[in-house]
Amino acid sequence: MARAERPARADAGARAEALAAEFLVGQGLAIAARNFRTRLGEIDLVARERDTLVFVEVRYRATAAFGGAAASITPAKRARMRAAADAYLATLRRVPACRFDAILLDALAAARITWVRDILED
Questions:
Q1: Domain for residue 121, yes or no?
Q2: Taking the CB of residue 101, how many other CB atoms lie within 10 A of it?
Q3: What pLDDT, in 10s, does the model give residues 12-56?
């Protein structure tokens, strides 16, 4: 990847996360944290929906090549999400009910958001 492509890609990712956060707030969730990072992984958004803590992965793919946004959440990515969530939960006094959701975008437009709940259910 050329050096000039990196800022554009990072900017698109940041715009996708901002759209996702606005969408979730519009759905009644409260954003508790953004880009929670540990050495084991990252959570794009941490939100609260009533008494449930929601760990949100935001995926933007401008093309459906290689399966699109949903297919990019691989088993390895899911394991990193779990590890990062465990680190986040370790910072809390009480562990609430939790779930893992995904916000999928195929364009940087709120109308193109797909919200998938419970992505880590087996």
A1: no
A2: 21
A3: 888 999 999 999 999 999 999 999 999 989 999 999 999 999 999
C-alpha span between 12 and 96 (Å, rounded): 32
Can you read off the two tokens belonging to residue 98? Answer: 């939790």
Question: Where in the sequence is the domain holding 92, given as residue range(s)?
Answer: 5-116
Cβ 88 vs Cβ 67: under 8 Å: no
Split into its structural domains, the chain has a count of 1
Q: Cα separations (Å) of 112 from 33, 50, 109? A: 23, 25, 5
65: tokens are 């090549």
pTM: 0.86
Q: How far apart are CA 46 and CA 34, in angstroms?
A: 6
